[in-house]
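We were asked to recover a plausible sequence for a given structure. The inputs and outputs are reproduced exactly as logged, with field labels preserved.

PROBLEM: sequence recovery
POSITIONS: 273
GIVEN STRUCTURE:
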């Protein structure tokens, strides 16, 4: 087999379109030449891609934290290239949060943590113990099965709370396209996930347990974030902004509780059947 020619081919190597310039006018691909295959170009291109990606990540996170609503406003205005796309941002932060909160000792989606944190966890614990006896397996083995189902369902239905929050957002700002509400929801929940990633340091030190002051702080921080974001995206002001922010915080908590309850119930069904 002979090595490929470094001379410019007649057709594009990607889509076979006849070339009329250095770059393919159909797909934008550039055929390889001697410069592209040099070690200097390879290293330089790799460094550029890495630093460009990093700068975009840092710029996105900085804007998300210190300029609430700006990511959504810029995206809707067509200024997209400077930031990480909203869905990708959410998925990356969800993946990081999911990884952190499934670590031993800090596992949020763990039936043992749920039983210890919530009073109605006692009923779930009794049902699982009874099921373990019927299936002739240990309680710990059944717990591991349950956690596998629960964590799988959480990752599978991760976008459910975004849709619920977007529907609540549409109810208080109904004169807008639904996609606008989805973008705002993705950025808002991305902020919530980023906050949870930071709070993981606290939980890693002191353990996960029901803590009303921390829940109150989280809701206050989220309220302030949404209160600052609404004027930039929906041009609201005054008491309407305060009221809408309060409704949205409650709505987001409702969406998160519904999402948690749904995935928990589904895991119970999958484990016991």
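RECOVERED SEQUENCE:
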């Amino acid at each position: 087999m002979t090595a490929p020619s470094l001379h410019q081919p007649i057709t594009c190597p990607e889509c076979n379109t006849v070339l009329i310039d250095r770059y393919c006018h159909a797909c934008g691909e550039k055929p390889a030449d001697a410069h592209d295959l040099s070690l200097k170009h390879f290293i330089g291109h790799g460094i550029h891609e890495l630093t460009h990606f990093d700068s975009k990540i840092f710029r996105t996170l900085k804007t998300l934290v210190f300029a609430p609503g700006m990511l959504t406003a810029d995206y809707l205005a067509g200024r997209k290239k400077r930031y990480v796309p909203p869905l990708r941002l959410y998925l990356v932060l969800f993946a990081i949060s999911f990884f952190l909160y499934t670590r031993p000792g800090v596992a949020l989606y763990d039936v043992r943590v749920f039983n210890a944190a919530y009073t109605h966890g006692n009923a779930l614990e009794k049902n699982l113990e009874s099921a373990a006896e019927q299936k002739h397996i240990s309680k710990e083995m059944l717990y591991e099965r349950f956690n596998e189902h629960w964590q799988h369902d959480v990752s599978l239905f991760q976008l459910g709370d975004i849709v619920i929050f977007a529907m609540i957002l549409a109810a208080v700002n109904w004169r807008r396209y639904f996609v606008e509400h989805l973008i705002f929801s993705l950025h808002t929940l991305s902020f919530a996930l980023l906050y949870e990633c930071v709070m993981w340091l606290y939980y890693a030190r002191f353990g996960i347990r029901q803590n009303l002051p921390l829940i109150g702080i989280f809701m206050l921080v989220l309220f302030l974030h949404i209160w600052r974001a609404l004027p930039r995206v929906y041009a609201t002001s005054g008491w309407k902004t305060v009221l809408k922010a309060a409704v949205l915080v409650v709505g987001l908590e409702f969406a998160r509780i519904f999402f948690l309850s749904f995935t928990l119930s589904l895991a119970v069904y999958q484990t016991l059947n």
